[in-house]
Structures
1.
Amino acid sequence: MTKQSRSISAFFPAYNDGGTIGSVVILTLRVLGSLTDDFEVVVVNDCSSDYTGEVLGELESQYENVKVIHHTENRGYGGALISGFANCTKDLIFYTDGDAQYDVRELSLLLSKLTDEIDWVNGYKIFRSDPLYRKIIGSIYQWTAKISFGLKIRDVDCDFRLMRRSIFDKVHLKSASGVICVEMTKKFQDAGFRFAEVPVHHYFRAYGNSQFFTFRRVFHVGVSLIQLWWELVLKKWFKKLYGQDSSDLLVTNNASGRAEEKDKQ
C-alpha cells in the first residue's frame, strides 16, 4: 500500500484529557502527513468536565483535518468509540486513547502489518506502565475475557488498533462500557476477519486519572462482561446445540411444562 493510496482516519475518545489531547492531536497530524496524503483526525469529547472541550475547539479552528464531536452527556467509553467509528470517513481507522499512554508514532508499525490478507492489526503492550494494583486487576480481566470468550489476541485491552472501516458494514457494536473491546474482538473474530499483532510501548499517565479503576466501575464492568458472555457465547452455544435461541428454548420448555400439567389435571 503506497502513501498515495492510503486513506486514514485517526480517532481519539477523550474524557478529561485536557492536559494531553492537544499534543496528541498535533503529533498525530504530523505522523499522518508522513504516511498518507488523505487523512483526518476525529476526536470525541465525551462530555468532559475539564478544559478538553476548549483545547479541541482551538484545534478544530486551526486545522482543517481535525473534526471534533462533542457529547452533551457522558456516554461511557463504549459510547465514545461507537460515536467515533461512525464519524470516521477514510478507508482505514486507527484509534487509541487521548491520554498519551501510547505513542502515535508507532502507527507505522501497525500499518506495516496491514497486508491484503489482514483486516485489522492489534497492538500488545511490551510492558504495562501502571501501578501494581492496576496490573493485577488488568491481568485478571485479560485472562477472564480471553478464556470466557475464546479470544485469540494477546492483549484485548490494548487500545492501539488499526482496522478497515468496511469491517463495520458487518459488525455492529453495542456496549457502552469498557467491555466494548471484548465485544469488538469477539465479533471481529467470529465474523472471520483476519488479524495481526505488533508489540507497542505503554507509558505512565501524565495527566488525569483512569476512569476504569474504581470499585464502582470494576463492578459494573464485571456485570457487563457477564451480560456480554450470555449474548455472544452462551446463546450461540444453545442455538448450535438445540437449533434455537436459549430464550426460545426457555419459552418452549415453559409451554411444554404447562401442557404436561394440564394433561395431569
2.
Amino acid sequence: MSLTFRHWPRPTRGALFVVTGASGTGKTTLVKEALATIPDLSYSVSATTRAPRVGEVDGRDYNFVSRAHFDTNVKDSAFLEWAEVYGNCYGTPRAPVEAALGEGRSILLEIDAQGAEQVRAAMPEAVSLFVLPPSIESLEARLRGRASDSEDIIQRRLRDARLQLRRCGQFDYVVVNDDLTSAHDQFQAILTAELMRGQRHSELLARFLDN
C-alpha cells in the first residue's frame, strides 16, 4: 500500500525530482501514483514542436510550440533540458519550475538519462531517481507482454534500455520495480524523506530557533 498523507508542511523551497528508467520499467505508473498521493507535487509540462495527437490538450499534455519559438528558447537558455527525437524537439521550460520551487511546491520530471544529466548540470540541487527492472530478461518479457509493438520496435526499445541502464550509477536513488506495491512504497518514501529535510524548512525551523 502506498503512503498516504493527510497533512503536509510545505517546504520553504520545493524539491525538483528527476525520474528516469527504461521503457517497460513502470516509471510512469510510479510517477502517477506519487502525484496523486503527495501534496504540492506537480508534473512538469514539456514543450514540443510536434503536432498534438488526438485527445491531447495544449498546456496539459504538452506546450505545443513552433520550431522557431523552440529554437529561440534554446538560444535564451530557457530550457533546463531539451533534445531532438525523430525530428521533433522536446524541452523542459525553466521558468515554471523555478517559480514552483520558490513557492514551496515540488516538481517531478520524467525524462531520459541524457535529459537528467542536463537538468543536474543546470540545477545541481535536483534529486535524481532511477527505476530499475529486476533483470534485463524480465524487462524484455514486459515489453513483449504488451503485444502491441513489432519485433523491430521491441529490439529498438531493448537497445535503448541497455544504454539507459548503463547510467543508473549516476543517480542519487534507485527503485527496483519487482513488486509494484513495494516499488510504490520505495518511490514515495524517497520523495517524502527528501521533502522533510530540515534544510527545506527554514521558515518552520526559524519559529523554534528564534525562541
